[in-house]
Write a structure and sequence with these properties.
Blueprint (H helix, E strand, L loop, with lengths): L1 E4 L5 H14 L8 E4 L1 H4 L6 H12 L4 E4 L19 H12 L7 E6 L1 H9 L2 H6 L3 E4 L4 H13 L4 E2 L5 H11 L2 H7 L1 H18 L7 H4 L1 E2 L1 H10 L5
Parallel strand pairs: 1-4, 1-5, 2-3, 3-4, 6-7
């Protein structure tokens, strides 16, 4: 299967959840989740890439193999046929393993939408072997608010009660751009809260503030953090 979308849209998280579900219902033998990229599969010498890729496949047997940024295996020209790029060897080895059955791993691929379409164009056999393809949409501002709340809930920190969801939504809409939200998605929430903590740390010290104050993000912290979010290229 293939998950396509911008960074931070949850592709890797969903892949891990799917792997867990496949193990729970017995479609795969166990929850083995091997996550790799091009550098884990490709070597710079003829014949070595196939051996390296096969070793990775074997390490995931009985479970799932997740190839992130799979489009990097495709030569820059966009076609695997006749190319000297060693990524072609890796693709061929992966395709061969998809035919094995038995304890061969379930394979999952992920990457940007346009780049993954180029990946599929590189070899017509890929579409036939990877028929389940999903596009992950960018997160909306209300979803970013909800995710921020979830992250805080599972951390030692809290957001001041005076800061409502409407306040958080307003902060994100006013102090971040559509480009930032599209390029960062869920990563924006984690970075926002990390920057908010930096601002909180500068505002307060252990000697002068209560424990509750030291562990609570105020509107000021969040606004400052939103203003400091980097602009993606």
């Amino acid at each position: 299967m293939c998950f396509m979308g911008n960074p931070g849209t949850g592709k890797t998280t969903v892949a891990r959840l799917v792997a867990r579900i496949l193990a729970d219902v017995g479609i795969v033998e166990n929850y083995t989740f091997v996550e790799v990229q091009r550098s884990d599969l490709v070597e710079g010498y003829i014949g070595q890439t196939a051996k390296k890729t096969r070793a990775v496949i074997d390490s995931a047997r009985g479970g799932c193999l997740f190839v992130d940024e799979a489009y990097r295996l495709v030569p820059s020209g966009g076609s695997s046929g006749g190319s000297k790029d060693f990524g072609t060897e890796a693709i061929n080895e992966l395709m061969s393993a998809m035919q094995e059955g038995g304890d061969a791993p379930v394979m999952m691929f992920a990457g940007y939408i346009d780049d993954m379409k180029r990946f599929f164009r590189a070899n017509e056999g890929l579409t036939r072997r990877i028929p389940r393809q999903w596009e992950f949409e960018d997160m909306s501002v209300p979803q970013l608010v909800e995710l921020s709340r979830i992250i805080v809930k599972h951390s030692p920190f809290s957001i001041a009660e005076a800061v409502t969801d409407a306040d958080l939504l307003s902060i994100l809409e006013r102090h971040t751009t559509a480009k930032q939200r599209s390029k960062l998605n869920g990563g924006l929430c984690s970075l926002l809260l990390r920057l908010a903590k930096e601002h909180l740390d500068r505002r307060l010290t252990l000697g002068t503030a209560s424990v509750d104050n030291i562990m609570t993000y105020t509107r000021e912290d969040l606004v400052n953090a939103a203003k400091r979010l980097p602009m993606p290229p």
